[in-house]
C-alpha cells in the first residue's frame, strides 16, 4: 500500500513541534486582536503599524497552513481520526478570532494617507503591493468588525460543519456490491471497468446506496447554500456568482465569453458521446454508467511505479525541472495512492508553502485515466513549486488559474502518448482525452447550471432530495442534449461532489473549463515556440498569486475577454473529436 508521509509537517499530533505551533498560533491571534484595538483606530505612525500587522500576519499564515494542512490531510485519509477532528476544530475556532482584526485592518488601510507612495518607497511593502491593493479594493465588501467576528464564529457550526458532514458521510458510506461491502470511491472507480456488466452493476449499487445518506447531505447543501446567499447579499454582491467572479480576480466579461463558447461548441461533444454510445451497443444515447467506459484495444493496467515512470518520461518533453518535481514527489512520498475505508474520494493536491512541498491524494486502481489524474495533480504540485518562490502573501492563487498547470500537464502526457501510438492505441488514448475534456466542458457546464439554479431556488425555499435530483437531471439534459440515455442519468451528482459544500468557494466548476482551455492555448504556444517559452510559463505560474487572471494571461499575449481565444482552444479539442470519429467509423 503506497501512502504519503506527513512527517515533514509534524511527526504526530502529540509531538513537541505540533503542540508548540498550536501554542504559538494562539499567541499570534491574541497579539493580532490586541494590536488592532490599540493601533487601528488612527493612521498615526501608519508605516510602523502596517509593518507590525503584516509581520504578525505572515508568521500566523505560515503556522496555520502547516497545522491546518496536517489536520486536513490526516482527515482526508482517515475521516474519523479523533485527533485530526479535534485539532481541526480548534484551529478553526482560533482562526475565527482573526476575523475582527482583519475587518478592522481592511477598513483602516484605505484611510492611510499617501498609501501608494508608502508602498512604492518601501521594498517590503512593494513586494506585496497587489495583496495590499486587493484589501483596499475589497474593503467595500467587508462588514463591521463585530459582524465579521460573529460570522466567522458561526461558520464553524454552519457551512464548515455542513461540509465536514458531507465528507464524513460519503467517505464512510458502505456500498453493498457483489456480495461484499465496499467504499463509495471503490464502487465509483468501477465506472471505468472493462466489463459493461460490472459498470452497470456498480452504477446500480451506487444509486441504491445514496438514499441512505441523501437526506442528511441535502440538509448540508441547504445549510451551505443558504449561508452563502445570505452573506453575499449582506456584503453587497448581486449574487453568489458575482462574488465567485470577484474572488477569482476575474472580469465578468471573461466568464461570459468562456460560458458562451462552451455552449456554442457543445454539439461537437454530443457527436463524440453518440459515437461512443454506438460503439458500446446503445440505441437510446449513452447511459451514465458507460460515460467512463474504456474504448479501444488497450487493456493495460499500471502499477504505481509504471504510472510514475510514464509520467517522468513525458514530463521530460516539457522541461527537466518538471520531471525532477515529479521524481521528488515519488521519492519523498508526497503521494497517497491507495483507496481504503475512511479515505475521501477523488483526487487533490495540497500546496504546503511552509515546507515548500505538496501532498497529492488519488484513488489509484491502475487505469490510464488514473495516470492522467496523477499527471493533473502533479501539475498542481509544479504550480506550487513556482509559487513557493514568492512571499506567503503572494502565494494564494485563484480558482481559474489553479487548474492551468494541472491541465497543461495532462495535455503533455496525453499528447506524448498519442505520438507513439498506432491507430488502435490512438482510439484508446483519444477517447481517454475526450472523456476528460467532455467532463471539463459538458459536465462542468451542467454543474454550473445546477449550482446557479440551486442558489436561486434556495432563496425561496429549502431543497429536498427530490428537488435536488430534479435540478441535477434538468442541468444534465441541458448540457448533454440528447447524447445521454434519459433513463440512465446521475441524479445524485450533487451528493458526492465536495465542491458544493464549501461556503467560501462557490462555483468551483467553471475554473476547470477555464484551466483546460487556457492550458490548451498555452500548450499551442509552447509547441510553436519550444524551449524559450518554458520560462514564460514558469513566470506566469509564479505570478498567479499577485495578478488578475486577465493580467496573468497577458504575460503570454492572451486576451481572455475575447471569444476568439476560447473558440480557438475548443477548436483544438474539436480536432481530436473529428479524428476519433474518423478512426471509429
UniProtKB/TrEMBL annotation:
Database matches in Pfam families: Peptidase_M3 (PF01432), Peptidase_M3_N (PF08439)
Protein name in the entry: M3 family oligoendopeptidase
Domain named Oligopeptidase F N-terminal: residues: 115-174
Cofactor note: Binds 1 zinc ion.
InterPro entries reported in the protein's UniProt record: M3B_PepF_2, OligopepF_N_dom, OligoPept_F_C, Pept_M3A_M3B_dom, Pept_M3B_clade3, Peptidase_M32_Taq
Highest taxon listed in the record's lineage: Bacteria
Gene3D superfamilies: Oligoendopeptidase f, C-terminal domain (1.10.1370.20), Oligopeptidase f, N-terminal domain (1.20.140.70)
Species for this entry: Candidatus Xianfuyuplasma coldseepsis
Amino acid at each position: 500500500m503506497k501512502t504519503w508521509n506527513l512527517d515533514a509537517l509534524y511527526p504526530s499530533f502529540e509531538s513537541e513541534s505540533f503542540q508548540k505551533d498550536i501554542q504559538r498560533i494562539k499567541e499570534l491571534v491574541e497579539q493580532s486582536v490586541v494590536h488592532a484595538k490599540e493601533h487601528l483606530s488612527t493612521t498615526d505612525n501608519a508605516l510602523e503599524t502596517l509593518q507590525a500587522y503584516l509581520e504578525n500576519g505572515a508568521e500566523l499564515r505560515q503556522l496555520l497552513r502547516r497545522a491546518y494542512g496536517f489536520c486536513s490531510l490526516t482527515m482526508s485519509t482517515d475521516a474519523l481520526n479523533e485527533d485530526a477532528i479535534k485539532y481541526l476544530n480548534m484551529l478553526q475556532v482560533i482562526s475565527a478570532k482573526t476575523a475582527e482584526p482583519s475587518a478592522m485592518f481592511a477598513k483602516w488601510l484605505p484611510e492611510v494617507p499617501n498609501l501608494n507612495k508608502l508602498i512604492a518607497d518601501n521594498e517590503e511593502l512593494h513586494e506585496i503591493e497587489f495583496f495590499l491593493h486587493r484589501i483596499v479594493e475589497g474593503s467595500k465588501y467587508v462588514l463591521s468588525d463585530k459582524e465579521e467576528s460573529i460570522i466567522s464564529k458561526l461558520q464553524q457550526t454552519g457551512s464548515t460543519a455542513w461540509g465536514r458532514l458531507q465528507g464524513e458521510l460519503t467517505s464512510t458510506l458502505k456500498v453493498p456490491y457483489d456480495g461484499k461491502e465496499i467504499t463509495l470511491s471503490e464502487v465509483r472507480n468501477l465506472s471505468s471497468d472493462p466489463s459493461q456488466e460490472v459498470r452497470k452493476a456498480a452504477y446500480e449499487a451506487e444509486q441504491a446506496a445514496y438514499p441512505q445518506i441523501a437526506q442528511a447531505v441535502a440538509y448540508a447543501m441547504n445549510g451551505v447554500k443558504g449561508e452563502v446567499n445570505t452573506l453575499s447579499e449582506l456584503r453587497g454582491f448581486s449574487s453568489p456568482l458575482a462574488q465567485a467572479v470577484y474572488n477569482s480576480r476575474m472580469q465578468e466579461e471573461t466568464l461570459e465569453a468562456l460560458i458562451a463558447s462552451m455552449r456554442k461548441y457543445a454539439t461537437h461533444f454530443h457527436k463524440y458521446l453518440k459515437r461512443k454510445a454506438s460503439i458500446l451497443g446503445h440505441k437510446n444515447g449513452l447511459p451514465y454508467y458507460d460515460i467512463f467506459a474504456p474504448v479501444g484495444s488497450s487493456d493495460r493496467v499500471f502499477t504505481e511505479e509504471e504510472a510514475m515512470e510514464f509520467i517522468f518520461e513525458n514530463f521530460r518533453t516539457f522541461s527537466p525541472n518538471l520531471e525532477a518535481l515529479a521524481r521528488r514527489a515519488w521519492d519523498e512520498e508526497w503521494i497517497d495512492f491507495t483507496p481504503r475505508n475512511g479515505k475521501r474520494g477523488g483526487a487533490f493536491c495540497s500546496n504546503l508553502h511552509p515546507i515548500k512541498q505538496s501532498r497529492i491524494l488519488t484513488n489509484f486502481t491502475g487505469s490510464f485515466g488514473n495516470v492522467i489524474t496523477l499527471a493533473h495533480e502533479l501539475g498542481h504540485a509544479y504550480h506550487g513549486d513556482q509559487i513557493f518562490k514568492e512571499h506567503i502573501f503572494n502565494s494564494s492563487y485563484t480558482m481559474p488559474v489553479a487548474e492551468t498547470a494541472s491541465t497543461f500537464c495532462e495535455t503533455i502526457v496525453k499528447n506524448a502518448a498519442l505520438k507513439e501510438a498506432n491507430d488502435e492505441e490512438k482510439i484508446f488514448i483519444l477517447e481517454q482525452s475526450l472523456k476528460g475534456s467532455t467532463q471539463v466542458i459538458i459536465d462542468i457546464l451542467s454543474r454550473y447550471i445546477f449550482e446557479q439554479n440551486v442558489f436561486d431556488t434556495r432563496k425561496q425555499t429549502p431543497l429536498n432530495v427530490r428537488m435536488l435530483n430534479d435540478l441535477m437531471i434538468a442541468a444534465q439534459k441541458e448540457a448533454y442534449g440528447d447524447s445521454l440515455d434519459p433513463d440512465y442519468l446521475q441524479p445524485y451528482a450533487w451528493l458526492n461532489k465536495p465542491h458544493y459544500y464549501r461556503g467560501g468557494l462557490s462555483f468551483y466548476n467553471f475554473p476547470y473549463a477555464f484551466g483546460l482551455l487556457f492550458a490548451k492555448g498555452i500548450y499551442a504556444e509552447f509547441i510553436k515556440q519550444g524551449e524559450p517559452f518554458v520560462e514564460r510559463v514558469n513566470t506566469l505560474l509564479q505570478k498567479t498569486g499577485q495578478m488578475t487572471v486577465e493580467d496573468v494571461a497577458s504575460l503570454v499575449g492572451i486576451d481572455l475577454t475575447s471569444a476568439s481565444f476560447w473558440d480557438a482552444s475548443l477548436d483544438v479539442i474539436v480536432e481530436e473529436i473529428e479524428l476519433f470519429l474518423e478512426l471509429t467509423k
